[in-house]
């Protein structure tokens, strides 16, 4: 891979990570933090945030694992479709591993 293309891929990966992180932070904050009158979080808010972030991270890990497992099959199908004339079009590829909170 060319250095410029590799750099672009790294930037896309960083952007995806930051989008997931920001979405997770926003979801958990809205769900767990109810009182903004104090500088520190209450014990209840802290435990809620820990649980919320943990749940979303576990879900993201499961999605990434499924994506990694399916990617070779998708690549193989695309390769076979390119080789055979008149082959049906490729199925849509997964959007990517950064799907935490996308549907919530």
Question: Overview of this structure, please?
Answer:
The chain has 104 residues and is mainly alpha-helical. The chain has 2 helices and no strands. Helix 1 (3-32) runs antiparallel to helix 2. It is elongated. The mean pLDDT is 83.
Rough outline = elongated
Distance between the termini: 36 Å
Mean pLDDT: 83
Strand content: under 5%
Number of helices: 2
Structural class: mainly alpha
Helix % is 55-70%
Q: What value does the Rg take, in angstroms? A: 19 Å
- Name the helix and strand elements from N-terminus to C-terminus, one letter apiece: HH
> Count of DSSP E strands?
0
Largest sheet: none
The residue ranges in which pLDDT falls below 50 over 5 or more consecutive positions are none
Brief summary of the model shown:
The chain is built from 2 helices and no strands.
Sequence-ordered SSE layout with sheet pairings:
Layout: H1 3-32, H2 43-83
Helix pairs in contact: 1-2
Keywords for this entry:
mainly alpha, 104 residues, elongated, single chain
């Amino acid at each position: 891979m060319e250095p410029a293309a590799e750099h672009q891929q790294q930037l896309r990966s960083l952007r995806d990570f930051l989008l997931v992180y920001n979405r997770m932070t926003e979801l958990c904050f809205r769900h767990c933090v109810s009182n903004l009158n104090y500088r520190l979080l209450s014990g209840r808010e802290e435990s809620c945030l820990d649980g919320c972030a943990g749940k979303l991270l576990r879900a993201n890990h499961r999605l990434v694992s499924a994506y990694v497992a399916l990617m070779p099959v998708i690549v193989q199908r695309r390769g076979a479709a390119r080789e055979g004339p008149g082959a049906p079009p490729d199925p849509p590829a997964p959007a990517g591993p950064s799907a935490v909170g996308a549907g919530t």
